[in-house]
Amino acid sequence: MKILRKIVTMAALLGGVTAGVQAQVLIGGFQGLSDPTDYGWTENGTSITNNLNCSFAAAGVPGFADSLVIGGAGTFGNPSSLQISLSAAQIQQFLNNSWLTFTFSIPTSAATGGYNQIYNVQFQFSGAGYGSGSTNWMSGGNAAGTWGTLSMAEGSTNSNQNGEPNYYLYSGYPMMSQTVTFNYTGSTNAFITSGSGYLNILFQGNTGNGSVATQIWNSVVFSQGPFGAALEAPPGEFVVDDFNANGVGPENPTNDDYYSLASGDSTNIYSQGQITNVYGNWYSQASGVTNFVWNTNQLTAPGVKGVNGSLELDINWENQATAGAGVDSQWLIWEQGPNNNEYNMLGVSSLTYTSLEMDVKWDPSSASYLGAQTYSNYGPLRIGIRDSSYGSDWQNLTTGTTITNIPLGNTNWVHLIAPLSAANPNLNGSSATIQGILIGADNTSYANGQFNGPGTLYVDNIVFKSPTAGAVKIPPPTLSIQPVTPGLRVYAGSVVNTYDRDVLTTVDQNQSWIGGAGTTVTYAFSLLSYPNNNIDQTMLELIPVTSGNATVNNEYVDYGAPNGLWLVLAPFGGGQVTATVEWKTNLASANPANGPANIPASNPNAIALLITNSTAIGTWLLTFNSATTGTLTPPGGTAHSFTITDPTAVTDFANPVIAQFGLQPNSSAGEGLYETWGYIGVTNVLDGKEYEDFTHESSDLNLNEVTGYQTTPSGFFQNVNSANVGGTIIIRTNADLYMVSWTTPAVGYNLVEDTNLLLVPASHWVTPDYYSSGNDDIAPRGTAELEGPNEVEVIPADNAATVNGQLGGPLAPDAYFILTTNTPASAP
Q1: Strands 41-43 and 67-70
Q2: pLDDT range class, residue 583, cuts 50, 70, 90
């Protein structure tokens, strides 16, 4: 297959749809019998233009001359089972966009109770996988996971449930109306892969408990942004909070600073003391924020748009002399709640904004540091964000930024700028979405945590900002492709931090050389590829299982365990490596020596052997011939003897013991690089021999239904202690052909392939998993996965283009891969 190294950006190919060309596509206007968009709509199977339950009337919905009014019996689906069968042109419009918006209302009536809601939005196409070719994309049965995650609404939303459109009725209720929008992009690839020739959209209503059954419908549209908006250039700023008296929510007249749009709790009025619903302690130990107050006396910084207030943080600084040595004396506050998904919905990321900014001011009565620093100050403030790749962790944006140490005596407002960078591997690519902001300080940054006593900090005008139009242009991604070699490919780094481990761990926990089944015990592995630089540590680890030291779902088990033995390979330049046999005893929460200069004073004999070898490629043998002696045999070399001078080795390294094989980059330059391992073997341990040759595998790691962990085909090894579960991949013999990778950021790009370079991607090119009907193994087959700074995708034989364009056909002699923002076709 030919390899194409050209990237097609945005919609450069003929017929591409560019962002912002079309704000919305109206598929249901409901303005009367002459409205052409009424065509194709039915209610309970009968056309809305010839249906006794349907009428067109001036229903009083603001902004609409006429509306579709649906009446009839009130039960599940009645009303309304409102449905449209999309035409071919409308299907293409569905694929060209990503949001669906509609206006849903109910009239006043004599009803005194009950509910009236939209329960499901269903996409129906061949092979959708639910019922007879349909799937509830928005589901009342899982409102939090669908409506609450993917939708927003504005208008009469007070009775919505986890974002699901709902009205509760009461005596004398007025007409109520809301506009609902949701992101459906997750369904488009499933539709394309299905090859279906039809697509229906069905809205299922639900009424009961004596409510009015009537529903009013207006303006169903597809669009590229929420609420019918076009994709546009990033705005100049996104206001997180200007601390207006009305707080965050639609009642804030200044900037509509929303909070938890989909949680049903989008209004928190600061003048009523509700600021503690929005900000709280993320972490504190010893020092901490004792009070969160909306301060009415503090005005915003000059020249900034906000009015009437700031966030007051009352802090209790406690130094280590008081709190106790080793106690972290720090505090960290956060914008609370897991549902701050206005960030997701409105595209707040390092790709759209370049800085997080805020104004801060210390009260003059605040405790300060008076030690021998460059200048006395009020404390080392930190600004950070929660990134979508972080889970419960966070990313500090101000490391090494001295502006956060505000000098003693400066009690004016200070404007802080924390940079966001699309080039930062912790912030780019598919992990770019920001989930919330954090503000904190670290008393332990100074000798013995010298801050002591109360402090008061005011915070105002928290804003994400982007440069003026044209000032910064994010380059398009670039694509590369390479043949793959059968074996175990282990990627370095999860992009969370450089010390992450990516390893295979033995399932069996009797891996010690102590009490083995033979006179010698050997641990062996072979390397087929090895980066000459930047993978700081390739290792075999033997870790005793001790009480309180978790050995699964713990990538730092080697660090936390009190005892351990390592064989560590490290680059030495010119293709050479050093190989070190290291050990530790009674040193929990510590690394091995990793070099003579770093031997812990409490464990002076931590290095048993240090050699240099001309290459890492080949077979490595670590052999024990007694409890304290053994040999290391490198590729192409002779055996080198070593001794562990541990008088209690028999008990210190007795079973249960796990063996781990893998790597860690220890530098940002290593993240995303990989090694290929040929085999792993353990011989003569208590439970016998464990051996797996990865160069002759027909399957990848698969979920073990007993243990619940991804396990190799032999069943001997699992990746439970890897930071990046998808970072250990078996390249299968006679099954996997190529590895395609591309640089990030690459939001909105699709990898597509075809046999004819001149065809327009929007019309003929398909995603590779089209050829396997979407039935690929775990990512990165069929779904790209972020490895370090790049996205990668394995192309197996069943994802390669065929001569006739049909599934299962003979492979084409030529094939091309490109990245495009065009929507892939459903068939070549």
Answers
A1: unpaired
A2: very high
Q: CA torsion 809→814→818→820, rounded to 10°? A: -50
- Would you call the peptide bond into 544 cis, given omega within 30 degrees of 0 as the criterion? no
Give me the mean pLDDT over the 212-218 stretch.
Answer: 90
Residue 373, φ and ψ in degrees, nearest 5: -100, 180
Helices (H) and strands (E) in the chain, counts: 7, 49
Instruction: Look up tokens 């006593």; give the residue.
Output: 453
Q: Is 264 a residue whose pLDDT tops 90?
A: no
Q: What are the residues facing 649 on neighbouring strands?
A: none
Minimal CA–CA distance to 592: which of 572, 604, 606, 578? 606
Q: Yes or no: say if 564 and 603 are a contact pair by the CB < 8 Å rule.
A: no
Contacts of 514 (CB under 8 A, 6+ apart): 627, 649, 650, 653, 654, 655
Secondary structure of 306-374 as H, E, C letters: CCCCEEEEEEEECCHHHHCCCCCCEEEEEECCCCCCHHHHCCCECCCCCEEEEEEEECCCCCCECCCCC
pTM above 0.85, yes or no: no
- The amino acid sitting at 342 is E
549 neighbors 509 (Cβ within 8 angstroms): no
pLDDT digits (tens, 9 = 90+) for 403-440: 466 766 677 787 787 877 655 544 543 344 677 888 98
Per residue, what are the HEC states of 84-123?
Answer: EECCHHHHHHHHHCCEEEEEEEECCCCCCCCEEEEEEEEE
Using an 8 Å Cβ cutoff, are 418 and 306 in contact? no
